[in-house]
Amino acid sequence: MPSSVSLFLAFFLGAVAQSANGYGGVQRLKLQKMPMVLDDMANDEFRSQAREQVSLHEAPVDVEGCGLGMTSERIQGGHPVPLINFLNSQYFTEVSLGTPKQYFNVVLDTGSSNFWVPSTSCNSIACYLHKKYDSTASSTFKKNGSEFEIYYDSGAISGIISQDVLSIGDLTINSQDFGEALVEPGLGWAFSKFDGILGLGFDTTSVNNIVPPFINMVERGLLDEPIFSFRVGSSEEDAGEAVFGGIDKGHYKGEIHYVPIRRSGHWEVGLDSVRFGDDVLELENTGAVIDTGYSLLGIPSDVAELINAQIGAQPSWTGQYTVECDTVPSLPDIAFTLGGREYSLTSEDYILRVQQQCISSFQSFDSEVEQFWVLGSVFLRKYFTVFDYGAGQIGFAIAAQA
Q1: Model pLDDT for residues 119-144, shown as the tens digit of each residue
Q2: 302 is annotated as an active-site residue
Q3: Where is the signal peptide (predicted)?
Q4: CA 20 to 30 Å from 287, out of 52, 99, 244, 267?
């Protein structure tokens, strides 16, 4: 068991959100963001390395040699955005706001729809430990001033809505509405390695009905196709990449198989069954949320308890379940049937190795809204994913690794 462990947030599940309700001009939306515990190995050197790995300071982004030796010819009409990988648990990228540009590390999160960063007016501990947006320093800032509030299990993020120029990769979105966080309670936000969240969900689940950046890209004709895709890497050196408006054929192997979206307004597909070893759990009216902002596998608590017991996982004082590392190779595979096709993970895929500790990725999650499971980075490292907004479907293929 490691001697130093810290809390940080494994973000997910904007998809669990119900439609926003207004209260006195403030929009409140409850998102089931769960705390996750891993060892805190980040320091100033990590931040320096991450900044060298992906930088928007010189535009356009030079994608030559990034990831899998990608070239612009392999991305037909797409705009690549390199990811930064912290311990296979937090994936984020750098974006800029304002004129001149102010830079922030943000999670590209398909489980939520709002974009926010800390404000210079925020006095929370988390804000002091992260980069903050200064509206007075931007000549393109436009005041909105309406209040927003987003509920997480770790506490509510609240602040005001503002508007400015957003740059991500080689894309520029003028007059993008976003949240300036004035309150970020709890240590989870403080220990996160990113500054804010850029939601890639639908506008129908957005607090204050703010149009998300991706929807603005589509509606303003910035993309050749209304899609974005993810290849999630497995190391700091090969952190992965998101592509807006296209697909890099070097990011996957074989064919892409598409599954229709199960619930309108959510990146969720039907989950037909789950196989664990020789045991098969047939499911009805159940979905799988494909969440780029979540690190683990979120499953019903009764199933999580059974699986963790079967693999010999024991709860630690941190709340995570751990297994003896020498037993990992003998543990059974798990497979999820999506659109009639099995997508399997080996024990090496679903057990996280963090500083000589082996952590089960099966995390209890029970939704009050719908019956669904959550497939996060543990799943996405193995399967390249296409989020097809235009056709209302999600595509899966074996991910190509560097």
Answers
A1: 999 988 888 889 999 999 999 999 99
A2: no
A3: 1-17
A4: 244
